[in-house]
Design goal:
The complex is a heterodimer of chains A (257) and B (262). Chain A is an all-alpha fold and 257 residues long. Chain A is built from ten helices and no strands. Chain A is globular, with a radius of gyration of 23 Å. Chain B has 262 residues and is an alpha/beta fold. Chain B contains seven helices and ten strands. Chains A and B meet through helix 7 and helix 8 of A and strand 6, helix 2 and helix 4 of B.
Chain lengths: 257, 262
């Protein structure tokens, strides 16, 4: 291996998988040998068995569905509002001057700290879960999208003007398409963060969802179920990430040339 | 008649430590069908002058008029080819060339007809559906030229368009542009720091002094058209070249702070 030298695709996949295998192997060794007590950490086989039980007998699939819908719902609301606002802020410096200081402030408001307030305002229903995800992702999205749009190459903007484009044309036909792949990347990244917020929202005052199952399992000291829940979240995250990446590749073939 | 008139135009860039005079008050008249090359050392304000004609920079003093109308901002009547590669990377060659036509609200079929004609003229038939990153630098600049010409501007502004290309590609591009100009007789304002290029391309060479820039001399190029690359070895060309080399040499020395060149 030499610095920055690429590895071939086959080796890349093999290396990626082998760390997962190593991770599970270390875990299995630590638990089956009795080095770590079952009370603190379940072994992989018990974890899989209780996972199967959760899915088949305890309706865990419904919990997964609820969590996925909360993440996607809250994130979709945030994205629908954040993308236009971010584009406007990136394009028009006056709009940016108006919103940017507040949004920067909003970005540092911890979404999880809003949960008690949101329970007060919105109860323990779905509105509260969606609100947590909205607060956690909206401000981040707006700021990053504004920066991306603001970084559009000036010479492309100038070229568009000399071709007769007006201000609206420059926003619609230069700023937006040129930052579209980066906006898609930002959405992918922030969606990953939204997953952490939903679990926090479900740990407190929820009657369904992966986070709710985890709190229930805590009361029973069922570490096998907790670990299964965490792994399910990781897997869903991995799958959506791959799907998002593939989607971006299809949507913006020019960005990868 | 004059298509473009530049009257007492100067430019001062305002910075943290006060203003920097980039261009002294300058006058220049451009006639219809003229091919004017603006030659000068780097930092002499030649690009600034061109950008002011394009409407991308505003003059600090003076006025620029195109067909008698004052220039207040950029517009489709002044097409521009930049030194940097400014094709829109998310559009194909065909879509890039259609950009200005679409902005005019032309129907798609008409856009494509015009675009294909100019893509043919710059020798890129067969590359219509390529993205800019799939093209070489020379091909990208040819597309940029087609994009500017397809818009049918009153005047074509070129800011060192071949500056980033290697020597051979540059000569190829000069031949191509010369051929297109001989066929279309579009009015062109062409900025360069390459003396050979300035003489070969231009019907007039405007020489600019070192910063703060001003027009130092205005030399007509009495070479016949069509110009073949072999004119570069004719006595007239050589004579012009040695004169311009002297003029530029003095300015380069001044710009470098070496007072009197010998």
């Amino acid at each position: 291996m030499r610095p920055l030298q690429p590895v071939n695709p086959g080796a890349r996949v093999a290396l990626g998988i082998s760390f997962f295998v190593l991770f599970v192997a270390v875990w299995a060794a630590a638990t089956f040998s009795g080095y770590v007590s079952k009370t603190f950490l379940a072994d992989p086989v018990t974890m899989l068995r209780s996972g199967y039980d959760l899915l088949m007998n305890q309706g865990f699939a419904f919990d997964i569905g609820m969590t996925v819908w909360r993440v996607l719902g809250g994130f979709a609301i945030a994205a629908v509002l954040a993308v236009p606002l971010g584009v406007m802020m990136g394009a028009y410096k006056g709009v940016e001057a108006f919103f940017e200081p507040f949004v920067s402030f909003g970005r540092y408001l911890p979404a999880s700290a809003f949960i008690p307030l949101l329970i007060l305002w919105a109860g323990i229903g779905e509105a509260q879960k969606l609100s947590v995800i909205f607060i956690g992702s909206f401000f981040q999205l707006v700021l990053m999208i504004a920066v991306s749009v603001g970084n559009t190459r000036r010479d492309l903007v100038e070229a568009a003007y000399t071709l007769g484009a007006g201000d609206a044309g420059v926003v619609r036909r230069v700023l937006m398409p040129s930052s579209a792949p980066e906006i898609a990347e930002i959405l992918r990244m922030v969606l990953g963060w939204a997953w952490t917020y939903v679990i926090v929202a479900e740990l407190i005052g929820a009657s369904s969802g992966i986070g709710h199952m985890i709190t229930d399992s805590q009361a029973l000291m069922a570490t096998d179920q907790i670990i299964f829940g965490i792994i399910v979240i990781g897997l869903i995250g991995l799958v959506t990430d791959f799907a998002f990446k593939a989607f971006n590749r299809v949507l913006f073939p020019w960005a990868r040339l | 008649m004059n298509i473009l008139e530049i009257k007492q135009v100067s430019k001062t860039f305002v910075g943290a430590q006060g203003g920097t005079l980039a261009l002294q008050a300058t006058d220049l008249d451009v006639q219809e069908n003229d091919f004017i090359t603006i030659l000068g050392p780097s930092g002499c304000g030649k690009s600034t002058l061109l950008r002011m004609v394009a409407g991308l920079d505003t003059p600090s003093t003076g006025q620029i008029t195109l067909d008698g109308q004052p220039v207040t901002g950029p517009g489709a009547d002044r097409g521009m080819v930049f030194q940097s590669y400014t094709l829109f990377p998310w559009l194909t060659v065909l879509q890039n060339v259609c950009f200005g036509l679409r902005e005019k609200g032309m129907p798609l079929a008409a856009q494509h007809e015009i675009a294909r004609e100019f893509i043919g003229k710059v020798g890129l038939r067969g590359f219509e559906n390529h993205f800019p990153k799939q093209l070489s630098g020379g091909m990208q600049q040819r597309t940029a030229l087609a994009r500017a010409l397809a818009n049918n501007p009153r005047i074509l502004l070129m800011d060192e368009p071949f500056g980033a290309l290697d020597h051979q590609t540059r000569e190829l591009m000069q031949d191509l542009l010369q051929g297109i100009w001989e066929a279309e007789r579009k009015t062109v304002l062409f900025v360069t720091h390459d003396i050979d290029e300035a003489i070969f391309m231009g019907s007039r060479v405007v020489v600019m002094s070192a910063r703060p820039g001003r027009i130092k001399c205005d030399v007509p190029v009495a070479l016949d058209h069509p110009r073949h690359y072999s004119v570069k070895t004719t006595p007239l060309f050589t004579q012009l070249k040695s004169r311009l080399t002297e003029e530029i040499r003095i300015e380069v020395h001044r710009a470098a702070g070496l007072a009197q060149a010998q």
